[in-house]
Fold this protein.
Amino acid sequence: MYFTERIGVDSVDLEIKWSDTWSGRKGSMLIHWIKWMEMHNVTKFRKLLKIIRESNTPDEEKKIREWCEQFLEQTEPFKKKEVNFIFDMKEKIRKLETQADLLKYQRDKFRRNTKPYKELGIRLKEEKKNLSTAKTLLRDAEQNIKGVESDKKFILKCLEIMG
């Protein structure tokens, strides 16, 4: 759920209070919702929902539902932005690869340890560094989309459980 900052969903803190009329015990707990959701554990979500429904603050369930709906609304624009970024990066990578191949071809025309060979070698090294950076950014964007899909699937399951 570290995508929440990128997607633009606000953090929510749940404060659950309860009191037991039979034993006279009282208690409360504060849950940082985003940290809690990182577990992706449906069983623990069911237990938390049961605790919330039996507590003195059942309106906290509304906060959860609103947060989940807000997250789902924000995922599609985020995914579209990432897909566009991936498309642009693939184009950039294709251009960088052709440029690197061209530089290598030009460099190989000269003998080693000559001035043009060394200059083209330096440019080729820079081009490969740019290519490596672009590939890393591409992998990160692809992982972001996979992570958002995983989060979305879990949140849909949570909304289904809430009914």
Notes: The two ends are 22 Å apart (CA to CA). Helices lie at 4-7, 33-37, 42-54, 60-108, 115-162. The first strand starts at residue 13 and ends at 19. Residues 4-162 form one domain.
